[in-house]
Amino acid sequence: MLALRAATALARTFTPSTASALASGRQAAWLRRGIASLGGSGPKIAFFDFKNHERPYFEDPVRALKASRQVRVQFYPVRLEASTVALARDCKVVCVFVNDKVNEEVLQQLHAQGCRMIALRCAGFNNVDVKAAAGLGIAVARVPSYSPYAVAEHAAALLMAVNRKLPQAYNRFKLANFSLDHLVGFDLHGKTVGVVGTGKIGECFSRIMLGFGCQVLLYDVRKNPALESLPGCRYVELDELFANSRVISLNVPLFPSTKYLINKDSLSKMQRGVVIINTSRGALINTAHLIEALKTGQVGGAGLDVYEEEEDYFFQDRSGEIMMDDILARLMSFPNVIITGHQAFLTAEALSAIAETTLDNISQFLDGKKPLANAV
Known about the structure:
Layout: H1 2-11, H2 16-23, H3 25-36, E1 44-47, H4 55-69, E2 72-75, E3 91-96, H5 104-112, E4 117-120, H6 130-136, E5 139-141, H7 148-163, H8 166-174, E6 192-196, H9 200-211, E7 215-219, H10 225-228, E8 233-235, H11 238-244, E9 247-250, H12 264-268, E10 274-278, H13 287-296, E11 299-304, H14 326-332, E12 337-339, H15 348-366
Parallel strand pairs: 1-2, 1-3, 3-4, 4-5, 6-7, 6-9, 7-8, 9-10, 10-11, 11-12
């Protein structure tokens, strides 16, 4: 009852959807655990958008941090935004994920409430106004590398599933339909694969494609020496990569320079029937332009783990609701498009590494040191 009263009281300051979520029994259980963790006299830490699949990997590192520094830790399943920022009152550290909105308005409120560090449980930090954070003296740390193999292997899985029509084949088999019509794919062996972004994930994906017997074209503003020396890999300009690749994989962060990297113009430069894989950030692709290219057959298939407007849907069960996003609904209607809900990172190894690095960053900050993975 205490947790329910606390949830109801807090909910008065939130949007109706957030209030409803917090007042539910499941969210009350989260609050009960959060309230129970307030014992101790050390700094307060709030985790936002914290999900059940994360808990087993954070339990031991958080327990160790509480024991060594007497911190008080709260976990919230709701996202951090202007309507929920009050939950972080008196928290010195706020830990967020990819869809939390850490803009200038939220940062100013956090700073006024005593926050001095934003710890991201992810590699990307485009959802944080790092310039505003620096101006307020708020440290920002991220997890630059957890398991590049997890993301690269998921990208390869998307490619294989799109190419070999695995969802259609599986659904037919469940209905005892053993027809092979419209299930023809193509050999990856001997094909040219374009890899845009050759950091750790891009390198892992390139090596996987080499293992399939592909030729790999590479593009990045900074070349990776480990890939330059590999037979079968070659750095080229972006237009050459677009023109000559049967498959294109996106592995770059979201910056102003990379937003809508895939657009009407770049799509027109590609081979007809190209397959596009995106496990990085949704806004690398202009989705409306991708849909038009899918309709005309210019794009032969797409495997997407991210979507530009994903924050309204991903990481939530919306199966009982009407799909209000017309663009996402149209994208989901294509039989040659596979979308997963931002789960490329979701392996035990990656989750363990994320938890370890996140807590290491927080520990460094609490000890008065610069976090190892500072983003500002």
